[in-house]
Amino acid sequence: MEQERERGITITSAAISAEWMTKKGPFANIPHRLNIIDTPGHVDFTAEVERSLKVLDGAVAVFCAVAGVQPQSETVWRQMNKYKVPRIAFINKMDRTGADFYSAVNDIREKLGGNAHPLYLPIGQEENFRGLIDLITMKAHIYKEDDKTGSLYSEEDIPADMLDEATSYRDKLIEEIAAFDDVLAEKYLEGEELTHDEIRSGIRKATLAMSFVGVIPGTAFKNKGVQKVLNGVVDYLPGPLDIPPQVGRSIDDPEQEVSVSPNDNKPIAGLVFKLFTDPFVGRLIFFRIYQGKLEKGMALVNSRTGKTERISRLVVMHADRREDIDKAYSGDIVAIIGPKDVRTGDTLTAKELDIALEPPTFPEPVISMSVEPASKGDQEKLSLALQRLAEEDPTFMVSTDEETGQTIISGMGELHLDIIRDRLQREFKVEAAVGKPQIAYRETITLEAKGVGKFVRQSGGRGQYGHAEITIEPLEPGKGYEFSNEIVGGVIPKEYIKPTEEGIREAARNGTVAGYPVVDFRARLTFGSFHEVDSSEMAFRMAGIFAFRDAMAKAKAQLLEPIMKVEVETPDEYQGDVVGDLNRRRGVIQGIESKGKLAKITANVPLETMFGYSTDVRSLSKGRASYSMTPSHFEAVPANIQAEVAKNSTRAPART
Q: What Cα–Cα distance (Å) separates residue 605 from each residue in 20, 23, 74, 198, 645?
């Protein structure tokens, strides 16, 4: 994308398929097809990481040799853990001033809890980085100075001054992997020398068990170490046959689990994980095949809609270049063209299959702003463009403010919405003005409270009657929403329980403090009554709304604000100014760490105070500080700020 080239960052995930063949080890001289997805690192584009990890079998986590583990790394690492993705690590930028391989490995262990062990040691670092020591073969690979490709090296004996260090690291590596293989453990304990293939096999077993992270140093800019990473992908990361079957739910009976596994002879099943509008071919639907063979012209069923969708074209992506193909197989990642009514997370299957695969989950937006077209004539173009962008990006949401009639866009951060605005202009030719960013506050309750809801209408003919009594109670932060049905004796018939809960959910979208969604509470439906003739689903839905509002009024509601984890790296001389500025922003300093002549300051800061921080931190440090920011949690807003937010809110608080 133009924006990616201009800003030097990745914004959308890009897919590429390639072949790679290792020269040593159990998979030597066998061509392997690699389906690679490059994801952004910036937390504003976390949806791209989330949906990619959902469909990938293994990951290469890339770290900077200078900065080590950064806040974004922690977020992505948690996502990898969530989807149980085995990984290897690449410590990049070994040629940069300040590079420290061993510190980065230690960071992975301490900050991420990863059982990280080097597979190669760097020979020199910064401008002296000139080679790698292979801890499996115990040979040094010295890069040729005049080689511009970075891929040519000579295999030599390990330099004498590094032999003891290399031997020590190799012993630690073998000791670690021996725990995952009884044969290796026995040979190791008896003092026998392990073969190179036995060591590789042990590393593979430990990696697939999610208990080991092999680390490789290098510099992508100079193409050094990259080949070792590709060897590591083939040797240590899982292929489609190594991962457990994908579990989904039966469409006919959602309680029943159904699974699919890679077999080209079984009916096709796969997951749509990304939509992208290509200016040349239109809508590209990125698809991971979990079972069966996909052919051009096939008709697949969308398990969400029940509709049949025809595959008119099938392409393999090579970043921004497409290659048309006729067939794709289990384990492949392809782009399909043709289906119309498809969303991220949809399952497409053969007609005879009854399965809906688990879709990826996405975080809620934390920031909103209003958007208006520059002219009345652009209103329709703006609506269409926003709809397209919302289809592509599950963390970008569009809504209408009922009070003001304004269009509100919501996303993961300032940069996220800035890119959206830029894309509106460049791709959709829509000029739009945006309002001041608004915080996506939440509300919660601090006390248990009972609420009664009655909806009674008499209007000559058939009336309406619904009566529900509920108790709401606070849950731990981050627990979301729970509902329990405690009705006994049929005082509310079974068919009215769900509408009552729907009413509670609907009412919880607008709290009583400032009209923001209510989170972290349990609603217990305890009592009620019904009328044989006048009761209806609509009446009980209204009863649920009234009961929730009644309870909310007594539950001592509280406003919550998003708190960001902020990490600033600044030269020591500006440390005091940066800390003072973060304190003024209601920040709480979590720690200060020295890295050479730099100070690394970690703080939790309310998002509300962080707008425009990039400009401020640059001026405080004369342009020498850098920072990163990731969503951390929600926290109660101080009373004076709560009153201010409630006063200025355009969202209508719920009224009883």
A: 45, 50, 17, 49, 17
Mean of the per-residue pLDDT values of the chain: 90
- CA separation for the pair 85, 82 (Å, rounded): 8
Q: How far apart are CA 23 and CA 331, in angstroms?
A: 24
* Helix, strand, coil in percent for the chain, rounding step 5: 30, 35, 35
Beta-bridge mates of residue 132? 122, 141
Question: Who contacts 75 (Cβ-Cβ below 8 Å, separation ≥6)?
Answer: 43, 46, 49, 630
Contact criterion met (CB below 8 Å) for 463 and 582: no
341 vs 356: CA distance, rounded Å: 16
Domain range list for the chain: 57-242, 246-357, 367-440, 443-555, 559-645
CATH code of domain 246-357: 2.40.30.10
Q: Which CATH number fits domain 559-645: 3.30.450.20, 3.40.605.10, 3.30.70.120, 3.30.70.240?
A: 3.30.70.240
Least confident of 206-215, 271-280, 396-405, 469-478: 396-405
Is the separation of the CB atoms in 522 and 473 below 8 Å?
Answer: yes
- Residues 445 and 468 sit within 8 Å (Cβ to Cβ): no
Q: Do domains 367-440 and 559-645 have the same CATH topology?
A: yes
Architecture of domain 367-440: 2-Layer Sandwich (3.30)
The single residue listed with the structure tokens 């042990």 is 202
Statement: residue 637 has pLDDT above 70: yes
DSSP string, 450-471: EEEEEEEE--SSS-EEEEEEEE
pLDDT at 403 over 70: no
Q: How much is the pTM?
A: 0.74
Helix (H, G, I), strand (E, B) or coil at 281: coil
Q: Could you write out the DSSP letters of every residue in 474-519?
A: E--TT--EEEEE---TTSS-GGGHHHHHHHHHHHTTS-SSSSPPB-
> For 216-254, what is each residue's pLDDT tens digit?
999 999 999 999 999 999 999 999 999 889 999 998 888
**Closest C-alpha to 70, from 97, 86, 93:** 93
Q: Give the chain's radius of gyration (CA, Å).
A: 28
